Amino acid sequence: MRIAKTTPEVGQATSAAARKDALLRHWNNYELRQSYIPSRHSSFLCRALSGYNNVLARGFILVIVAVFALRLPFLNQAIQGDDVFYLTGARHAQIEPLHPKNVEFPLSGKMVSMQGHTHPPFNVWYLGLILLLVGDVREPAFHLAYIPFSLMAALSCYALARRWTPRPLAATMLFIATPAFVINGTSLEADLPLLGLWMASMACFISASEQRSPGRLAGAMILMALAAMDAYQSVLLLPICGLYLWCFSNRWAPAWAALLTTPLIITLYQAFERMTTKAVPLAALAGNFQKYALQTLHNKMFNAAALTIHLGASVSSFTLGFFVSRIALPFLLGVTLLAFCIWTMRRSEPERRFLAGWILIYFTAALVLFFAGSARYLLPLAAPLAILLSRLPYPRILTWAVAANLVVSLALASANYQHWEAYRSIAKEFESQTKDKRVWVNNDWLRHYFEANGALPILESQSVQPGEIVVSSKLGYPVPFATGGGTRVAMREWQVKPSLPFQLIGLDAHSGYSTVEKGFESFGLVVEKPVDIVTAEIIVEKKASLSYVNMGAPESESQIAGGFYHIEDGRWRWMSGKGTVLLKREPNQTEIALSYALPDILPGKNIELFVDGQLVHQVTLKGPGPGQIKAHLPPFTTPQISVSVTIDKVFSPPNDQRNLGLIVQSIRLLQN
Predict the structure, then answer these.
(1) On the chain, which terminus has fewer CB atoms closer than 10 Å, C or N?
(2) Are residues 524 and 553 in the same domain?
(3) What pTM did the predictor assign?
């Protein structure tokens, strides 16, 4: 093998250990390191350094052992978070392998199309393949199948760290100990596959660019294509890899052309879906952003603050100061770190400029692309951050940082494990009590295990009939539902309380780890209060006792059979496309009166009134405003009647997920 040039200190070293020590002492010298890059026709440098390959092998083995040590204890992790949505796509992949996202699924009480999901289908395809091989959702098998992505990410980080730091193993261990890597590595969401593919494509692309290897470049392009099919933010590989080529003055044309891989694959995927399903996933996603007001300035500001806190929290382990301050200190550290990266970009050393630029480019894009401020969004920044920190002239602090990060990460991951395990245990315990009853689950996070036992997801304003059971979570955004004229009676209540005081999300945790909607703290420390409260209620039949339902009165709840939302302004309720109430009828009551209001924003005009399923009145409203509709009742048959009101069109405001049709103030029966 030919080495381009060397230095007297390294060249005069007589032993393998001396050569290795000399190389590490001079590693920060860019000119020296460049001299060890082999020519395009030579083999890898390390083979020429006697004994150095053994060091590399030990490093790779230690990284692999560390990854398995983190993952194996969590193989039986319960289905958590958004796993249930990805598993929905995985099941549909058994039906439509080419279009696993061409399916609707319940989300927060509404049926939505998976075409507008925030990720392309790679993760769904991968889950679908595991499901095909295993036959059912078995947690250990699924989590075991996800370990290769952790290995890809960690080994790629080690390969990159060997280029840019004299302490590559410490940098890699700091990367592995990152809380988001430990915690979200036990999830079936798309974040871990993205991290593995992102890091592997970066390592392969940089190696190909250094050695001008067409084979490695082809491998990098394949990995980039897979990353593009896993997450739209993979398009950021273009500017980051472009920055690498610019920093190191690499003019190899094929490498520059390879930068177009991710945007090209994303474009081809959109075109394929448009031609075969008539839907454009990115257009559907943009529609969801607009419909749910996810990209408003308010959300963006909260997202920016939360991401800055998470960035700072990733380095606050140097002092363990986050136990004292989980907002102010991480925020200041995050701002300081960004300022340091901006300052570093002005330095002439290429590798530091590249690592700092990697952080700045991705973080800036995260402020624009994301809206929930979750810590997992910053996973692709963990590697350059760990490598930069490992270059500081304080090696002992690195050991402390790795140990502190591991303690916190494992504590948070264990508390997270217990949180989701509680849901699995509740579903298993409740199964024996509900074999002969219909059960509705009023929480997306509870759905997987309850649906596996035969429960059904509840939809917004759905009518639950007497004798049926509803299981709800106070933490997980329960949707309103009607009781079909019955009364809700509590059956059982469970408090979800991990044994450790750490919380990623909770009723009183104020933690923004998963979403900024719950708070800004990097994680929660709550000792006494539960993470969540799960309740089971049975609907007990109750006879209608009122002939006059005032929508602003709390007692109207028991007579609403479906289609109405909660009380507003103490006087009225919104109705969806159809609302139903139960009324007590006396023999001398022959008319029904509906008091309503139609705002300007509502498109509906045609209103129909039904009594016990029989149409009794139909009217077309002339315009917006308050009004009253009266109609004659059918002949007296029973002392309880069902009254339904329908309107032909509904409206969903930008900041409201409800379908609004009409404002109803009261429904009453009138005597002669």
Answers:
(1) C
(2) no
(3) 0.82
